[in-house]
Amino acid sequence: MSQAMDIERWNLDCEFNNTDHHTELNGWDNLIVRRGQLFTISLYLRSGKYQSGVSSLNCVVETGPNPSDQYGTRAAFALSAKIDKSRWSAAVVSPPGDMVALSICSPPDAPIGRYTLTLGESGQFKFILLFNPWCPGDTVYMDDEKNLNEYVLSQDGIIFQGTHQKPFPTPWNFGQFEPDILDACITVLDMNPKYLKNPGKDCSGRRNPVYVCRVLSAMVNCNDDKGVLLGRWTNNYDGGVSPLSWRGSVKILQDWCFNSCQPVRYGQCWVFAAVACTVARALGIPCRVITNYLSAHDTNSNLVIEQYIDENGDYSKSRDMIWNYHCWVENWMTRPDLKPGFDGWQASDPTPQEKSEGVYCCGPIPVRAIKSGELTFKYDAPFVFAEVNADVIAFRRNKDGTQNRITHAAMVGQKISTKSVGNNAREDITHLYKYPEGSAEEREAFQKANHQNKLLRQQENQGLHLAVKVSSEMKKGCDFDVFALVTNNTSSEKKCRLVFGSRAMSYNGNIGKSCGFKDLLNVELSPGAERRIPLRLNYSKYAGALTGDNLIRLTALLIDHTANEVMLGVRNIVLEEPQITVRIIGEPKENRKLTAEVTLKNPLPESLEGCCFSIEGANLTGGHAITERLSSTVGPGEDAKAKICFTPTHFGLRMLVVSFDSNKLCHVKGYRNVIIGK
């Protein structure tokens, strides 16, 4: 006859279990484990000893506000002779005695989230269950330890910005193991409208990473719900902070959670993507941030971006845009809901651009589906396909109302980039999204996508040729030249008009104020001749026009009067910010105070006022930023310098993110990797 164990107390052994489940950086105050993997707790009996085959214990595990067997959010199970990893099970793994080591295991497809485990009549305890990319039975399983360290455990990262000709790295503190972040990430799930409408069904859906990633895509923006971030793409950030000010996800998630889930102001694509990456990694889904240069925003799903330009080379406003770059995330998982061959990285975009099933979200869609043109798959394949593959057609609108097709070699989806595994270099993953431009495979993929227009790739002009060239150094604060290069490869003389202009632009393609303009009515070229026409960009002119993105669009419009043809040359340039140098003073060890000496040389021909440095880093600065303000102005060519103290809390390789702000030079970022010893 069985006898129920009379438990007096228990020890959840959080230090051992969390370390074994790769959650030790969340701390040891709470039990945080991964599904499909056993954890062991110690039970201390009030009376009697555990006897195999005689002692019994009934366990009930529950998640969500309305747990039920129907939704798989409740399970009752008794002691087994051994652990069964296909379902909730428990087994004693210690010899008979008044202390019992009880191993418990969840199935690898259990819903993730907050759980309560009831032990017979003795009481209950709470724990958190996460996805387990170390478990072969989990749909997020990833079998490479280096990839797991990068895409799940790494709290530091690099997001690529700039232009496709000149990508530049921006450091980011994902901070998924920082204090309160895991609670905030689960709260993101609990605030989604599907949960509020039917919490039992939503919690059941949390067994599926496809479902969870789709929820995150909708909840990182606040357009339809009480999501995390409010987007803004203007230069007016009243009531919040510029998206360029953020150094990491930690403060964003903390502020959202501590302020009753009111949206944090403001985000743009890389911020949305970075926060989504933090939440995914915190929940155990391998994730990385992607940058797509010259990213198309196709609003009418025809896979064509039509651009209209006036006689001065200025672009007309259009809903269809080509962003200088756009960021989204990829999550790693299998797709049993699709036909075989589409497991692996899945693209998901939390930036609110177009609605999907009535909600501002996008994905997840297999990257392989985008490459092969499989646009019937869930979710949002046509939109992502257009971002990397849409055709671009340009027209010149004349004053008399007519318009001319422009010879234009624009291509979208260039240098698709992410951070390399194990280092801060850029990995080019364009080949994962598309076949080489103009290749037979690319053509076949386009036909499979049911594209109704012929591909209009331009061959190099064998007659008159136009290109935009730039200087080797284009540093913010300096004057420099850019060039329109016109070549006459024909056997006849050419008489042309050249309109060469420059305008500040935002990374999402919005065009701003002029930075310089030149209109040459009579450009004559003899057969075989080449002319290099400079346009001077003066700091005094572009300083007041630049947005925080430091981007300028160069547009050259060449009108060939003899052949009645129009050619367009476009190039986006990014001005280089000064570098921040970081020197670490002291021996880097756990719980030992260090000093970061940070320095920036003022590159501008004017003084900087209101200067301040800020530092932030996972397990370095206590989950918040540390700021040091300078009391004096910094003249042209002078150094801004500060010393900032911080105390690391964990050993290992860490990234210290540094930013500099002033009245004339803002949002300058740098970083320094620091190896913290035990």
Overall description:
With 678 residues, the chain is α+β, with helices and mostly antiparallel strands. The protein has five domains: 3-130, Immunoglobulins (Immunoglobulin-like), CATH 2.60.40; 168-285, Transglutaminase-like (Coagulation Factor XIII, Chain A, domain 2); 286-451, Transglutaminase-like (Coagulation Factor XIII, Chain A, domain 2), CATH 3.90.260; 464-574, Immunoglobulins (Immunoglobulin-like); 580-676, Immunoglobulins (Immunoglobulin-like, Sandwich). Helix content is 15%, strand content 38%. It has 13 helices and 40 strands. The strands form twelve sheets. It has a six-stranded antiparallel β-sheet, with helices on both faces. It has a five-stranded mixed β-sheet with strand order 3-11-10-6-7. α3 packs across α7 and α3 (181-190) packs across α8 (269-283). The longest helix has 15 residues, at 269-283. It is elongated, with a radius of gyration of 29 Å. Residues 450-461 have low confidence and may be disordered.
Quantity of strands, as a count: 40
CATH class of the largest domain: Alpha Beta
Give, in spatial order, the strands making up the sheet with the most strands: 22-19-18-16-25-26
- Average pLDDT taken over every residue: 92
Low-confidence stretches: 450-461
CATH architecture of the largest domain: Alpha-Beta Complex
> Describe the biggest sheet?
6 strands, antiparallel
- Molecular shape: elongated
Distance between the termini: 53 Å
